[in-house]
Amino acid sequence: MKRVEILDTTLRDGTQCEDVSLSLEDKCAIAGKIDQLGLEYLEAGWPGANPKDARLFARLRELSLPHVKIIGFSSTCRPGTRPEDDTMLHALIEAQPHGATIVGKSWDSHVRGNGGLGCSLDENIRIITETISYLKTVFPLVFFDAEHFFDGFKDNPSYAIAVLKAARAGGATRLILCDTNGGSLPSEITSIVNVLKPELEYPLGIHCHNDGELAVANTIAAVQAGIDHVQGTINGIGERCGNANLCSVIPAIALKLGHDIISHEKMRMLSEISLFVDDVANLSHNKHQPYVGKSAFTHKGGVHVSAVINNPSTYEHISPELVGNQRRVLVSEQSGRSNIIYKAREFNIDLSKDETTANELVKIIKDLENCGFQFEGADASLELLMKKAMGMHMRYFKLKGFRVNTERRSDDTDPVSEATIMIEVDGNIEHTAALGNGPVNALDRALRKALVKFYPSLQEMELLDYKVRVISSRQGTESVVRVLIESGDKKDHWNTVGVSSNIMEASWMALVDSLDYKLYKDSKESTS
Predict the structure, then answer these.
(1) What is the DSSP letter of 47?
(2) Could you tell me the pTM of the whole model?
(3) CA 447 to CA 433: how far, in whole Å?
(4) Strand (E) positions, 209-345?
(5) In sequence order, what DSSP letters do the residues of 405-424 get, joined into one string?
(6) Cα 125 vs. chain centroid, distance in angstroms?
(7) Alpha-carbon distance 459 to 111, whole Å?
(8) pLDDT per residue as tens digits for the range 259-291
(9) Which of 265, 257, 246 is nearest to 223 (CA)?
(10) Can you state the percent helix, strand and coil of the chain, rounding each to 5?
(11) What are phi and psi of 295, to 5 degrees?
């Protein structure tokens, strides 16, 4: 077992991702999580490139980050100049990180060609050696990122190796091989690393991009070939198609290859940190992401669920708890009794000895899904359905009738929606009305307004999200629609579903389930 160290570049390379813009506070929050995860290095940004990065290094010095070492990023001095005269290198030194990463050209066509440095190959060698040598007088850690190394090696291996030797001569702590275009194959990574090891006999690192969707595979191949320094980002965010995803790289190297990276306790933070970074970056979380995605250990097919119950390794390559994830079982038209029994257990309902009810629920669910219902994202509706099938559900109110009107009085005014509703609670009739931002919002407000005098806890409930999907468009505006509603209170969030060819009826079904679930949940808490 060898030690593999990690440099996280989420705050530098990751912020080059389209749609990602992190504030100073966002970056500090992510830095804190990286430190908690126990990684060795955090590449925080490029001092001097923008005012925010300059302020970030000052803030990071003030924070309590006991484990991670902060690394600043910059490039070699410009051709024809000396590093001691370079303003960007001065900004790097003034930022006072624990160490530095210096990027330099290793592809000869980028040195001489248009869009590159526009200098001789020898001049590129000089600025690499002198820049690293200069920074080594300031920092104990100086990593050299050999940009486009694998493409450069394929075109001109002798020059690509000469660049690495120049960085070594300057005193670089490590030589980082960069697959900058992200187009290399694992077999190429392996063969090139195997050539370099005896040629250089120097510590090497790997930095892969994901343009060929191989960044994780290429990183693992490099580690298998002997490299023990890995760079990447949380969730693989980065320019174009992203970087090597540390949420996959770390468990693969630790759990599959058996190398030492972080403790098992820290490993269980991966799912939490993956969600945290997406939330801070305002990105939709990829629930199908390996290891840490919500669907990574989710089972839907009846045969799969039956097998997983008896032996999880049949359809799970690792235990989800190792990375802080959890097993989920979905109930759908593909479900069997195993799915129903497993799911009921999540709701503290024991169906293992009630074969009749379990079989009845399988039939009910398959019939409903055939009509367009989908319970995969509507656990609250599913739990209520199970309770009703077992005769365990209390009816909190009865509908006597509702009407929803939407009126637009002129071309230059917005439509106005009003809902009137009549309900009965324990023999008491309540008749009321409410305005809303659209017909569904008006109906939601009217229903809760009618019920709140009987159930005051509904005041703390909110409708958080509302989605409509046309199940089949063949009938045009008469098509069946599915409505999914997310609701929440101070303690919890839950999801409900309704289906109908009438969008208001589908919305009503989902709304009723949502309120029903809140009241059912409150009653459980009051009796526990």
Answers:
(1) B
(2) 0.75
(3) 8
(4) 229-232, 298-299, 328-329
(5) EEE--STTS--EEEEEEEEE
(6) 40
(7) 66
(8) 999 999 999 999 999 999 998 998 888 999 999
(9) 257
(10) 45, 20, 35
(11) -95, 0
Q: How many CB atoms lie within 10 A of CB 62?
A: 8
Q: How far apart are CA 131 and CA 167, in angstroms?
A: 9
Q: Which of 102, 32, 28, 88 lies closest to 58, judged by CA?
A: 28
Buried (b) or exposed (e) across 449-469, using 16+ Cβ within 10 A? Answer: bbbeeebeebeebebeebeee
8 — pLDDT class (breaks 50, 70, 90): very high
- Please, what is the end-to-end C-alpha distance for the chain in angstroms? 49
Nearest-CA neighbor of 139 among 71, 38, 207, 205? 71
Report how far residue 11's alpha carbon sits from residue 161's, in angstroms, rounded to the nearest whole number. Answer: 29
DSSP E strand boundaries for 180-242: 204-208, 229-232
User: Which tokens is 285 given?
Assistant: 């979380």
| Domains (range + CATH), the chain | 5-262 (3.20.20.70), 298-389 (no CATH), 398-527 (3.30.160.270)
What's the number of CA atoms in the CB half-sphere (13 Å) around residue 419? 23
Collapsing DSSP states into helix, strand and coil, what is residue 145?
Answer: strand
Helix (H) or strand (E) holding 394: none
**SS (HEC) of 345-364:** HHCCCCCCCCHHHHHHHHHH
Whether residue 309 is predicted with pLDDT greater than 90 in this model: the reply is no
Residue-wise burial string across 200-224, b where 16 or more C-beta atoms lie within 10 A, e elsewhere? eeebbbbbbbbbbebbbbbbbbbbb
Element at 45 (helix H, strand E): strand 41-45
> Do 457 and 522 form a contact (C-beta atoms < 8 A)?
yes
3-class secondary-structure state, position 332: coil
Pairing mode, if any, of strands 416-425 and 398-407? antiparallel
Place of tokens 């820049």: 131
CA angle 225, 230, 232 (to 5 degrees): 130
Taking 90 as the threshold, does the pLDDT of residue 238 lie above it?
A: yes
**Mean pLDDT estimate for the chain:** 90
Rounded-to-integer distance, Cα 101 and Cα 174, Å: 10
